[in-house]
Task: inverse folding
């Protein structure tokens, strides 16, 4: 009789995921098995010879089946790491991407330029899971009095997830969440505005992999025919919400980065920032 040890399960599942064309088969197998066994992933390596219980194997088989059909690991286990922080996720929010960490890094660098006794006002538009706002809140320079970050999203379900992530990471007193279509429910002005808004065009959306198109919320992905529609609406409203000399940082697709930068013609500074892969990923602008 075959004994399904941790080692055996990982080897079989890794091979199964490879045949399915899954990008990171071993990592995904480890995340799913550790979740099914309710242990840390590192603990798998000290339990290679252990045999999971039938309940654990049953849950793992369900995970493997669903992931093999395209369902993302993050939705199956209910969490995702971003900027070395754990976030709750479900199908109401996008799964945080590694490339978005660049937006956090650039924002933190800007915040460091403010005097130590000042707490710049920050707004995160399209917060989704709250990943950007929470990462900034946990890592921004400390000041005598911290001004709460305002984080908004059009989806009430996303706001609820974001609020849970602020609590999970101990920054619930540093962020104020609002359900708002862009700046509709915002009257404050800000020193720094960051956003990762929908920027996928209709034609690009149709070519997205099934594990994105079939599972992640269309509302957070699809912008319209060109991909710039939501960002253009945002830039029209931005002038009243950003202080003179204030910064805006937007994540966008490399395919529309030049078009997005053009929305800021006449501003003091307009710069496109490339990610580690050399793709045009962020647009930075300073209001004059």
Result:
């Amino acid at each position: 009789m075959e004994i399904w040890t941790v080692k055996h399960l990982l080897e079989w599942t890794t091979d199964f995921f490879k045949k399915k064309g899954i990008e990171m088969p071993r990592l995904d197998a480890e995340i799913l098995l550790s979740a099914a066994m309710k242990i840390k992933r590192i603990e798998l390596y000290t339990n290679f010879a252990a045999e999971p219980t039938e309940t654990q194997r049953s849950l793992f088989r369900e995970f493997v089946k669903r992931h093999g059909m395209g369902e993302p690991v993050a939705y199956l286990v209910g969490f995702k790491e971003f900027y070395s922080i754990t976030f709750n996720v479900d199908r109401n929010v996008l799964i945080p991407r590694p490339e978005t960490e660049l937006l956090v890094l650039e924002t933190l660098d800007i915040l460091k330029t403010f005097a130590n006794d000042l707490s710049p006002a920050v707004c995160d538009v399209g917060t989704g899971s709250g990943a950007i706002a929470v990462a900034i809140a946990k890592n921004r320079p400390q000041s005598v009095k911290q001004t709460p970050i305002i984080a908004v999203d059009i989806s009430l379900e996303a706001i609820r997830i974001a609020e849970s992530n602020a609590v999970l990471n101990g920054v619930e007193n540093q962020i104020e969440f609002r359900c708002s279509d862009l700046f509709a429910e915002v009257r404050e002005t800000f020193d720094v505005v960051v956003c990762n808004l929908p920027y996928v065009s209709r034609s690009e959306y149709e070519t997205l992999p099934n594990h994105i198109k079939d599972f992640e919320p269309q509302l957070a992905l699809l912008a319209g025919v060109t991909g710039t529609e939501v960002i253009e609406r945002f830039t029209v409203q931005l002038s009243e919400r950003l202080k003179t000399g204030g910064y805006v940082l937007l994540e966008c697709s490399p395919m529309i980065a030049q078009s997005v930068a053009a929305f800021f013609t006449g501003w003091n500074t307009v710069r496109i920032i490339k990610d580690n892969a050399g793709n045009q990923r962020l647009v930075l602008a300073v209001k004059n």
In short: The two ends are 74 Å apart (CA to CA).
